[in-house]
Amino acid sequence: MSRFIKPAGGLDPRRDVALDVLSAALDAVDPAAAIRRAVALEGDTLQIAGRRYDLSRYARVLVAGGGKAGAPMAAAIEDLLGDRVTGGIVNVKYGYTGPTRRIAIHEAGHPVPDEAGVAGTQRMAAMLRDAGADDLVVCLISGGGSALMTLPVEGVSLEDVQDLTNDLLRSGAPIQAINTVRKHLSQVKGGQLARLAHPATVVALIVSDVVGSPLDAIASGPTVPDPTTFEEAREVIRQYGLTDRVPDAIRRYLDEGAAGRQPETPKAGADVFERVQTVIVADNAKAAGAAVSRAHALGMNALLLSTFVEGEAREVAQVIAALAKEVRATGQPIAPPACLILGGETTVTVRGDGKGGRNQELALAAALSIAGLDRIAIAALATDGSDGPTDSAGGLVDGTTVARGVQQGLAAREALDGNDAYPILSAVGDLLVTGPTNTNVNDLLAVFVFEAGNII
User: Fold this and answer.
1) Which phi and psi angles does 104 have, rounded to 5°?
2) Which 3-state string (H, E, C) describes 187-252?
3) CA atoms 316, 317, 322, 323: torsion sign
4) In a designed cystine with 11, which of 15, 140, 291, 364 is the match (CB 3.0 to 4.6 A)?
């Protein structure tokens, strides 16, 4: 079953093949299913990744967390543990909610944090500060958690954090660099959620949205040691040319931290991590593998090339288009009908004032490279269903995309130069639209090269 509101552009019925493959990838990283695979309950014994927890020994089971996958993760925990769950709160993006009984689902802003996110995180922090050695805290963490779990340090306002977040997102900085800064302006990021919950037992279940799944980078690592420092946070700001734009309160706080006058985030070996288990339950590799399997089932030659794709979106697009051209011309590395799958997360250095996201920008740049070529389709998908500040999940383009834009009076090159991919992809029906998927495992890129004269 397709997870997409069907585009109106070219490539039908081949477009349906592409949507089928991408739908299989999304199904494979359904957060509730991931929880059910990773967590088991036998009597009073909770089993998670080789560890066993005797629930009869705990006074309370509390649930905390944040991210776009939070609602289905919370519902799955409730289904598993029932009335053993004492209560909890999970922050999710607006529209990414779902029914729960004991765990409060609190909607908030993403990618730029807002007052609702702060309010929800304050409630979460108060609950965790009250946790004792005889409590079990289940943390549900997924992509988007950095923005959704926002509680600025004393002396730094939400407005300060919003301004810096906006600048970092537009700078082209990778998520790891952005999170290095955010950890040092927060009371919960960079292992500090574990610090708040100490001495309770903590189990963190993670849906990863970071390339390679480094635990300290996913949602800014609230339950794991933070290897980054105040000085590294200051270096990120310098490296991306934001020194003159940083709010004064943030500059002062980072300077004080680098001088040792503010407490560092907890590091490896800190006692706050002695009773913490952190487990990844879903990631980009699982989604990519499912896409390959579905393409095989549809009769295609399929290959997973990498789940470590990073870089400027329009530059990555040139590489993706080159792969498509190679398969079309030589049958290498696999012959048509072919499906090449890649995963990761690109960035966009915003220079125009247009509308779009990194996947739409990548798709439009790829469309320019394959313009006029038949039998090729390229998809760029944000698995959370939200590519940048738009209602689109990305784009699915082919060799006719640019020409169809011209017919609508729209120039693809001009749109790309203005970071304005959304209007042209929308006009030609090449946007990918899912609505909220309630998961988030980075982006998927899919290259399809079909046989001449056949659907596949």
Assistant:
1) -75, 125
2) CCCCCHHHHHHCCCEEEEEEECCCCCCCCCCHHHCCCCCCCCCHHHHHHHHHHCCCCCCCCHHHHH
3) positive
4) 15
Average pLDDT, the chain: 95
Q: How far is CA 247 from the centre of its chain?
A: 27
**Hunting for tokens 């790829």 — which residue is that?**
366
- pLDDT value at position 10? 57
Q: Over the stretch 287-300, which tens digit does the pLDDT of each residue have?
A: 999 999 999 999 99
301-315 pLDDT, tens digit each: 999 999 999 999 999
Which residues are bridge partners to 282 per DSSP?
Answer: 207
Residues 153-188 have pLDDT tens digits of 999 999 999 999 899 988 988 888 999 999 999 999
Residue with tokens 């390339």: 211
pTM confidence score: 0.85
Print burial letters for 253-265: b (CB count within 10 Å at least 16), e (below 16): bbeebbeeebebb
| pLDDT beyond 70 at 455 | no
Q: Give backbone dihedrals phi and psi of 296, rounded to 5 degrees, phi first.
A: -60, -45
* pLDDT of residue 225 exceeding 90: yes
Sign of the alpha-carbon dihedral angle for 151, 156, 157, 163? negative
Report all structural domains of the chain as residue ranges with CATH numbers, in order of start: 14-27+285-449 (3.40.1480.10), 30-151+186-228+265-282 (3.40.50.10180)
* Pairwise CA distance, residues 161 & 348, whole Å: 20
3-state SS assignment for residue 378: strand
pLDDT higher than threshold 90 for residue 12: no
Taking the C-alpha atoms of residue 189 and residue 117, their distance in angstroms, rounded to an integer, is 14
Please list, in sequence order, all residues whose beta carbon lies within 8 angstroms of the beta carbon of residue 120, skipping any fewer than 6 positions away. Answer: 66, 89, 91, 106, 108, 148, 149
Q: Cα(112)–Cα(191) distance, rounded to whole angstroms?
A: 21
**319-336 burial: b if 16+ Cβ within 10 Å, else e:** ebbebbbbbbeeeeeeeb
43 DSSP 8-state letter: T
